[in-house]
Sequence to fold (559 residues):
Amino acid sequence: MRRQTLTAWALLLPAACLLVVFTHGPVLRTVLATFYTTPHGRLPAKFAGFDNYAHLIADPIFWQALRNNLLYAGLTIPASMGLALVMALLVNGRMRGRGFLRMAFFTPTVLPLIAVANIWIFFYQPGFGLIDQIRGLFGLGATNLLGQGDSALYAVAAVAVWKEAGFFMIFYLAALQAIPQSLIEAARLEGANALQIFRRVIWPLLTPTTLFVAVNAVVNAFRLVDHIYQMTGGGPNNATALLFYYLYQVGFQFWDTAYAATLTTVLVVVLGLVSVGQFLFLDRKVHYQ
Amino acid sequence: MSAGLDALLIRVGAWALALIWLAPLAYAVWTAFHPAAYETHFALLAPITVENFPKAWVQAPFARYFLNTILLVTSILGVQLVVGTLAAFAFARLQFAGKSGLFALVLMQMMVMPDILIVENYQTMRALGLVDTIAGIGLPYMASGFAIFLLRQTFLTIPRELDEAARMEGASLRHLILRVYVPLAKPTYIAFGLVSVSAHWNDFIWPLIVTNSVEARPLTVGLSIFSATDSGVQWSVINAATLMTSAPLLLGFLIFQRQFVQSFLRAGIK
Fold:
C-alpha cells in the first residue's frame, strides 16, 4: 500500500501540477480577487470587502447580460435538442439517402464557430444577404437582423442552434439504435400507434441521453461566445451581450480585472450548480438502466 | 391518413430540413468559387473560379497560421495523452490515500473549464513570460480532466488477469502501461484525439486574448482579424479564407465520417 501510494503520486504528479496551476488555483484566486480592487499601474490592489459585488448588483449591463444569457439558453437549448431528436428519428429509419441526411445535419458541427459566424454574417447581410434575397423574391424590403436590438439575440441564437443540433443528434441516434426492436414490436402488438410508442416507450428510454445532452447544451450556452465576438461584438447596445462575453470585455477591453473576477465567479457558480444538479439528477433518475 | 402518405411527408420534411441545414455552407461555397461580381446575385451559369483562394492566401499570413494551429493541436494532444495515461492508470489500478477526493477534483475540471478562467490564466501566462507563445495558448489545456476520466473508464474494463500475467513475467510498470494498457485502449485514444483536435482547432477566445503577433496566432484568430479588416476585402475572398481554415477538419470528417461520429459518441457516453 505504501509503495502503491508513492507510485500513484508519481503518476499523478504531472496532471496534478497542471490542474492546480491552470484550473483549481485560478478558481481560488478568482474568488479571492473579488474582495480586492483592480491594481492600477503603481497602485496595488486594496482590500475592498464586498464592493465588487455591490458594483455587480448595481450594474445594469450585468443584469442585461444575465437576462440575455437566460433567454439565449432558453432559446438554444430546447431548439437544438428538439431538432436533434427529430433529426435522429429521421435518419434512424430505413429512408433512402439517410447517409446524406446525416452528413447534412452533422457537418456544421465540424466547422470552427468563428468560420460559422463568418458564413452567417454574410447570410444576414442587409440588402444582399441570402435572407434579404429571399425576402426580395416575395417583394419584402431589406432587414438588418443583426443590427436591431429586438432581433439580434434571436439571430445569434439561430447560429448556435445550427451549429449544435447535429452534434446532439448523434447521441440521440446512438440511443435510438440501442433500443431493442422487440420492445417496439411488443408495443405495436398491443395496438399502440406511432405517437404512443414514442411517448410511452422511446422517450422514457432516452432519458439518460436527454440529460447528458441537456448538460452539454447548458454549458455551451454559457461558454461559447466566439460568434458574438465576430458577429455583433455584444451589440447593438448590449442586446447580444452574454455573461462570458461581458466578462471578456470587462477583463480585456476595460482591463478591470477585479470586476472581471467577480463576473467569473458568477459563471463558476452557474456551472457549479449545473454539475451539482446533474449529479443529483443522474443519481436518482438514471440508474434503472 | 394512409401510411404511404405519412412516409412521403416525412421524407419531404427530412429533405427540406437537410437542405435548410446545408444552405449556409452551400452559399459560402458558391461565393468562394465565383468571381466577386456574382457574390450578391445568383446566376446558374456564372463562371466558376478558384482565384479567391490564392487571393486570400497572399493577403494574410495563412501559411504561418496553419503552422501555428498544427503545432498547437499536436502539442496539446501529445501532452494530454501522456499526462492522462499516467493519471488514469493510477486512478484505475492503484490503491492510495485520497483517491476519491483527487478524482473528484479531476472531474471538476470537466465543468469549470479553463475556457472561462481567462483573467487569472492570462496573469499566470504573463508571470511565466508565455504571453504570445504557442505554449501559452496550450498549457491550460494540457491536463485534461476529460482525458483522464475517459482513459480511466477504459482501463477499468481491462481484465486484471492480463495485468497480473504481465506482472508475473516481471514486466515493469512502464512496460505494463505501454504494452498492455495503451494498446488495449487504442479506440479511446483515437476517440479522444479527434475530439481534442477538433476542439482546439476551433478554439477562439483564449487564443485571441493570449496572442498578439503573427508568430503565435492560430487560424481562428487569423481568420477573425482577416475578415474584420475594413480594408474592403471582398466577401468572396473572405468566404474562401473561411472555407480554407475549416477545410482540413471538413475533409477529415467527410473521409472518416464513421470514425468521427463513433469517436464523438465514445467520448460522450459517460
The mean pLDDT of chain B is 86. Chain B touches chain A through 91 residues (CB under 8 Å). The two ends of chain B are 41 Å apart (CA to CA).
